Amino acid sequence: MTERTITVTGRGALHLAPDLMRLTLSVSKAHSDFAQAVRAAEEGGARVKEALERSGAAQVKAAGVRTEPLYETVTENGTSVRRHTGYTATRRLRAELSADPALLAQVLTALAHSGASPALSAEYTLADADKIRRHAAALAVKDAKKRAEAIAKAAGVKLGGVRTVQSGQHGAFPAVRAMAMRANDLSDLSPEELEIAEEVTVTFDID
Questions:
Q1: Is the pLDDT score of 147 beyond 90?
Q2: d(C-alpha 100, C-alpha 82), whole Å
Q3: Helix axis angle, 34-55 relative to 101-112, nearest 10°?
Q4: Are residues 118 and 26 in the same domain?
Q5: Domain CATH for 148
Q6: How far is Cα 154 from Cα 30, in angstroms, rounded to an integer?
Q7: 92 pairs with which residues across the strands?
Q8: I need a labelling partner for 117 at 20 to 30 A (CA). Which of 43, 124, 137, 147 fits?
């Protein structure tokens, strides 16, 4: 006997202004001596950490040190020779702060005056993303039911109970950007809205 069912996919999406910013910063220093390169990167990282904490960033954490050898190519007796010249050490840090353009301006100003010249990228996100995803999933289920009801009405049948629910695609689209060490134009620092989307595939019985 053929099962009498309707299977539909519903989508729920929320568009919200981000309330949290995650910063990733790195300070790179080069030196002919390995220990000196690492020490310089650590000192630069310490200055960045101090600037972040002073300007109001929260949860500043070290994210590791990476070292790489440096080489240069020179010509000796008509032959190109690759010569080791030193090392580059990079200290990485992460920090979180409220997604407030004015606060970010303070952070950029503090970093610009830290003397460490860190590379900086920022990701705008949501502090309670899991709760928002659950809300989007609930909207997706409601959307699936509306779609199924419309199909059942058009087919002249009565929609029954839910047989199965399967979570489908989901996504968030954070704004990730590299930032210069300037804070004179707050309009450049204002984030776009984020979309949190969930899809569910629901199978309904039909009577």
A1: yes
A2: 48
A3: 140
A4: yes
A5: 3.30.110.170
A6: 71
A7: 26
A8: 124
121 and 25, same domain (yes or no): yes
CB 152 within 8 A of CB 206: yes
Distances (CA, A) of 144 to 15, 141, 147: 19, 5, 5
**Rounded to 5 degrees, what are φ and ψ at 124?**
-85, 135
- Total number of domains in the chain: 2
The 8-class DSSP code of residue 33 comes to S
Domain of 136 in residue numbering reads as 5-16+128-173+192-206
Q: Please determine, for residue 13, whether its predicted confidence score (pLDDT) is greater than 70.
A: yes
Max CA distance (Å), the chain: 90
* Co-location of 116 and 200 in the same domain: no
Q: Is residue 187 one of the residues assigned to a domain?
A: no
Q: What is the mean pLDDT of the chain?
A: 87
Q: Which residues of 37-68 are buried (b: 16+ CB within 10 A; e: fewer)?
A: bbebbbebbbbbbebbeebebeebeeeebeee
Pair 29, 121 in one domain: yes
Q: Which of 116, 134, 111 is nearest to 41 (CA)?
A: 116
Q: Is residue 149 part of a domain?
A: yes
- The letter for the amino acid at 92 is R
Tell whether 36 is covered by a domain: yes
